[in-house]
Amino acid sequence: MDIYPKNISPLGYQTGVGGIDSYGVNHNGFTNQDEIAYQMARSKREQDLIKQYNAQGITSNYPQYTTNFWGNPANNYGFGNSNIEANIANLPQTTPILQQPVQPKYWATAAEGKQVYDNVVRNEGNYQPQEQNMLDYGISAIKAVPNMLNNYINLKNVKLADKYKHAFMNCNASQYGQGGADVAELASNVRETYDRTTGANTLDSSIGDQYANMIGRLLGSKYPNGDCSELIQKYIKRKY
To answer: Could you tell me the domains of the chain?
Structure first.
C-alpha cells in the first residue's frame, strides 16, 4: 500500500500508477511498516546522490532517474514484503547509469548550443582565464593575433564542422593566457556582428556560434598545455 502523496522528488521519484512507483518497485502488498522503511531508504539514497551532484557544482535540474535507480529489476529489485531493511542492505552498492538527455555534439540553434555549453560548465567548471600582469597580458595578446589568423586561413576551406572550427580557434588563442582569451573574444564578437549585419548569419545561428566560441575559450583557459582538438571533441563533433 502506498501511503505517500504523488509528489515528484528532485531526482524524479513518483508513486506511480497501480502500486508501481517510477523507480520500478511494486508496492502492492507492502505493509505500512514496509512502506515507511522503503521511503526512508529511497530518501537517503536520493540525498546521497544529490550531495554528489552538489559537489560537482550541479545544484538544480538534476538527472532524472527511472527504473535504473535501484539497479537490477529481478525479483522486484530485491524488495520483499516485511523485509525491506534486509533487502536494502543486500542491494549492490553501485551507481546506476543515469538516464540523462542526449547532449548534441553539433547544433543548429542557440538553444542547443546553450545545452552543450551548460554541459561543459557542469563538467569542467565555469573556468575563467587567470589574470596576468600588464607585460604578460600584452605578450599573450600579441601571440594570439597571428595564431587566430593562421587558424582561420588553415581551417577556412577544410571540411570540418563549423562549431568545431569556432571552438578550436578560440581554444588555441586562449591557451596563451588572459590576453589571448580577450583577443579571441573580441575577434569572435567582431566576426559575428559582421555576419549578422551582412545577412550571412541569422541572430539565432550567430548566438549558437558564440556558444562554440565560449566553449573553446573555457577549455583553452583551463588546459593551456592540452590538445585543443581532443578537448573539444569531448563535446563537439570534429566533422559533420
So the answer is: 1-100 (no CATH), 110-233 (1.10.132.110)
